[in-house]
Design goal:
single chain, two-stranded antiparallel ribbon, 12% helix, alpha+beta
């Protein structure tokens, strides 16, 4: 499951459920389903991170840009609400 951080709201999203591949083809910014359509898909819980702290690494997982941590270690940065 390849993941990315939505640049608009900061949430974690799957490339298959968000506006990712279409954005790649159209050279646009990828967005989560909620930012793209106005509604979250509810296939998994929506989890937020501070905007811009994560990148998608070479195997499709989220990784903290400064520390390099990923996986369950990212839980320390999670929030259930969008950060301003």
């Amino acid at each position: 499951m390849s993941l990315f951080q939505c640049p608009k709201c900061g949430c974690r999203e799957n490339t298959a459920t968000g506006y990712y591949w279409e954005a790649e083809l159209d050279d646009k910014e990828p967005l989560c389903s909620a930012c793209h359509t106005g509604e979250w898909h509810n296939k998994f819980p929506r989890v937020f991170y501070p905007k811009g702290i994560l990148k998608t690494n070479e195997v499709g997982n989220l990784q903290h840009i400064q520390t390099g941590v990923g996986g369950r270690q990212l839980e320390q940065y999670e929030s259930e609400e969008e950060q301003a």
